[in-house]
Specification:
By secondary structure, the chain is mainly beta. It has one domain (2-225): Porin (Beta Barrel), CATH 2.40.160. 0% of the residues lie in helices and 64% in strands. It is elongated. Residues 84-93 and 221-235 have low confidence and may be disordered.
């Protein structure tokens, strides 16, 4: 899921932001809500916390990190009408309704996260995770009438925090499956276009939530996992 709540804006040469002659806020492409699929690969390291340490004597705990990389089809778009009589389009009164369009696409996403989990269940780990997310985002914003089109776009790499959690289950001595949810926020920026008199634009906020299913292969572990009560259950 991709959620962008950024609003449109217009700068009037007469009296500034959303001033005289500007397209009303309701006429600009506002918030975007999109969806799509995501998939890729991951690698990581997880180790049990020694139970000799205070607090962990009765709480089997696993810590580690994960790095992942995935392609994405997640995208969102919006089209809204520009009312008749607005001065922005073409620098003069507009006698025919125009449109504004905005679109946003997350092309790929990678995260590097720390992970800590409770391993007190038989063959199952419940964990929380947090770190940094990096992704490539394409954004476009266009304002048009039947006579003229003003457009702007960017295609850039953004970074921000990510947080989430999940469950991982050891189905054999070497294979585990997991379900994981992550929230990411890659920040915001503004696309602007101008006809020489008026400038209009939209703030894009790149954030959303993803849910992933995964299959992991375990390297370097004992053939038979020890009982969880010993504190050596590993995922």
């Amino acid at each position: 899921m991709l959620n962008d709540s950024g609003l449109g804006n217009c700068i009037s040469p007469i009296n500034g932001l959303n001033g005289i002659g500007c397209v009303p806020q309701s006429g600009l492409a506002g918030g975007l809500n999109g969806s799509g699929f995501i998939g890729g690969v991951q690698a990581g390291l997880n180790v049990p916390v020694p139970m000799s340490l205070p607090f962990f004597a009765t709480i089997p705990t696993v810590i580690g990190f994960e790095l992942d990389m995935q392609g994405s089809t997640i995208s969102a778009g919006s089209t809204k009408a520009i009312p008749v009589g607005i001065a922005f389009v073409g620098g003069a009164l507009n006698t025919t309704p125009g449109v504004t369009t905005a679109s946003q696409q997350l092309q790929w996403l990678s995260t590097l996260r720390a992970r800590i989990g409770y391993a007190g269940f038989d063959r199952m780990l419940i964990y929380g995770t947090a770190g940094v997310a990096v992704g490539q985002v394409k954004e476009t914003f266009n304002t048009s009438s039947p006579a003229k089109v003003y457009s702007g776009s960017t295609d850039s790499v953004k970074a921000g925090p990510t947080i989430g959690g999940g469950i991982e289950y050891l189905i054999t001595d070497k294979l585990s499956i997991k379900g994981e949810g992550l929230y990411y926020d890659l920040g915001s920026d503004t696309q602007s276009v101008s006809n020489g008199l008026f400038q209009t634009g939209k703030e894009f906020r790149t954030r959303g939530a993803i849910f992933r299913l995964g299959l992991n292969y375990q390297f370097g572990f004992a053939a038979t996992p020890a009982p969880a009560a010993t504190g050596d259950h590993r995922l």
